[in-house]
Amino acid sequence: MTLTTTAVLVPLLPFLGAVAGFLLGRRHPGFVRPLAVLPTLAAALLAIAVAFGQGGGTATDVATRLTPTGSVPIDLALHIDGFAALIGVLVGVVASCVQIYSTGYLRDDPRYPSYAALVSLFTSAMLLVVYTGDLMVLLVGWEVMGICSYFLVGHYWETEAARAASLKAFLVTKLGDVPFLFGIFALAADTGTFRITGILSHVARDGLDHPTLIALLLLAGVAGKSAQFPLHTWLPDAMAGPTPVSALIHAATMVAAGVYLVARLLPVFAASAAALVVLAVLAAVTMVGSGLAALAQDDIKRVLAYSTVGQLGYMTGALAVGDRGAAVFHLLSHGAFKALLFLCAGVIIHAAGTNSLAAMSRMSGLARRIPDAFWTGTVALLALAAIPPFAGFFSKEAVLGAAEHATTGAVPGIPGAVGWTVLISGLVTALLTAAYATRLWLLAFRGSGAEAPDHGRQPLAMNAVLWVLFIPTAALGLGAPFLPDWFDGRSLTPTLTTSVLATGAALIGGLVTYAAWRHSIALAARTPIGVAVAAPDASPGLSEELAIATHTPPYADIAGAQDPADPSRLLLGPLRRHAATGFHLDAVYTALFVRPVRAAATLVRFLDREVIGTYVRGAGTAPGWLGAAVRRAQTGNVQSYLGALLAGSLVLAVAAVLVATGTGA
Amino acid sequence: MLAAASPGFLSPTGVEIAFLLVGIVTLGAAVVTVTTRQLVHAALWLVVALGGIAVEYLLLTAEFIAWVQVLIYVGSVVVLLLFGLMLTKAPIGRSPDADSGNRWAALTVAIASAVALVWVVVDAFRATWIRLDTVQGSTEVSGRSLFQYWVLPFEALSVLLLAALVGAIVLSRKKGEPPAASEASATSTPSVIAAPPAASAASAASGTSAAPAGGDGDTAGPAPREDR
Amino acid sequence: MHLAYPAVLAVLLFCTGLYGVLARRNVILVLMSVELMLNAVNLNLVAFDVWLRDTLHAGQALTLFTIALAAAEIGIGLAIVLLVYRNRGSSDLDRLRDLAERADDADAADRDPQQPDTKAEATA
Question: Cellular location of this protein (chain C) (predicted)?
Answer without folding.
Answer: Cell membrane; Membrane
